[in-house]
């Protein structure tokens, strides 16, 4: 038996949020009107065909904690940056505005995961810890496929040279040079290399850069802004 895997990433188009969160802000921690966020989340739930109770959200903290979800939750999963489940039609959700949303799935075993991989979490190993949790739930590395969603690209992610070196030491392949010729980070490149070394070969990278694409939220570009949502679930 093999499950059908669904992966969805939103843009800022649509929704009811007002500037600077316009329009389809799905983050409830950025200062937006809670009623607007609730309306946007309800719209997302309806669009997926799952219903609001089948979307599981995180209170993300830029760490490496992973939670295995065994059913719908009344509220958000607190203080975590990765969710894993084997429950069909239960969507794991990550919100981002420059960090990397990592959506993983083993369609054969029926295991999916959503990861919030920012600089700190990626450096601490949130992605391999998530893979470990998936393997413990029955997944096989060779059967896992991954989508690295929209994130700030190396061309626009300038950091101090010492920081670039520090991240490179923990996440090889991530150090790069920006379009301005300054030290930069390409977290998706580093994560892709990390996944390959874990035995995962089916890796797709969304080419969109949040900082360069006005249709996407970017904290680095705009400061106070909304959040995109990326979801993965088993049909």
TrEMBL record:
Keyword Transferase on entry: yes
SUPFAM superfamilies: CNF1/YfiH-like putative cysteine hydrolases
Catalysed reaction equations from the record: adenosine + phosphate = alpha-D-ribose 1-phosphate + adenine; inosine + phosphate = alpha-D-ribose 1-phosphate + hypoxanthine; S-methyl-5'-thioadenosine + phosphate = 5-(methylsulfanyl)-alpha-D-ribose 1-phosphate + adenine; adenosine + H2O + H(+) = inosine + NH4(+)
CDD domains recorded: YfiH (cd16833)
Any matching Pfam family: Cu-oxidase_4
UniProt keyword terms in alphabetical order: Copper, Hydrolase, Metal-binding, Transferase, Zinc
PANTHER family, sorted: PURINE NUCLEOSIDE PHOSPHORYLASE LACC1, UNCHARACTERIZED PROTEIN YFIH
Family: Belongs to the purine nucleoside phosphorylase YfiH/LACC1 family.
Record's function text: Purine nucleoside enzyme that catalyzes the phosphorolysis of adenosine and inosine nucleosides, yielding D-ribose 1-phosphate and the respective free bases, adenine and hypoxanthine. Also catalyzes the phosphorolysis of S-methyl-5'-thioadenosine into adenine and S-methyl-5-thio-alpha-D-ribose 1-phosphate. Also has adenosine deaminase activity.
NCBIfam families in the record: peptidoglycan editing factor PgeF
Record's protein name: Purine nucleoside phosphorylase
Gene name of this polypeptide: pgeF
């Amino acid at each position: 038996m093999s499950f059908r895997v669904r992966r969805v990433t939103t843009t800022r188009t649509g929704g009811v949020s007002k500037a600077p969160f316009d329009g389809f802000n799905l983050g409830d921690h950025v200062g937006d009107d809670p009623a607007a966020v609730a309306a946007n989340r309800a719209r997302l739930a309806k669009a997926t065909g799952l219903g609001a109770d089948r979307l599981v959200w995180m209170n993300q903290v830029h760490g490496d904690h992973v939670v295995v979800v065994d059913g719908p939750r009344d509220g958000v999963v607190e203080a975590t940056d990765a969710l894993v489940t084997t429950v069909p039609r239960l969507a794991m959700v990550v919100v981002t505005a420059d960090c990397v949303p990592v959506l993983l799935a083993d369609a054969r075993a029926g295991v999916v995961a959503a990861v919030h991989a920012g600089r700190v979490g990626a450096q601490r190993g949130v992605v391999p810890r998530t893979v470990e949790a998936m393997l413990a739930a029955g997944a096989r590395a060779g059967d896992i496929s991954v989508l690295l969603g929209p994130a700030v690209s190396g061309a626009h992610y300038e950091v101090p040279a010492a920081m670039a070196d520090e991240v490179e030491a923990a996440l090889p392949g991530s150090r790069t040079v920006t379009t301005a010729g300054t030290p930069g980070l390409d977290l998706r490149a580093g994560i892709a290399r990390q996944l390959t070394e874990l035995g995962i070969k089916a890796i797709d990278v969304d080419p969109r850069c949040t900082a360069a694409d006005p249709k996407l939220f970017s904290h680095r570009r705009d400061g106070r802004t909304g959040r995109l949502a990326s979801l993965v679930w088993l049909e």
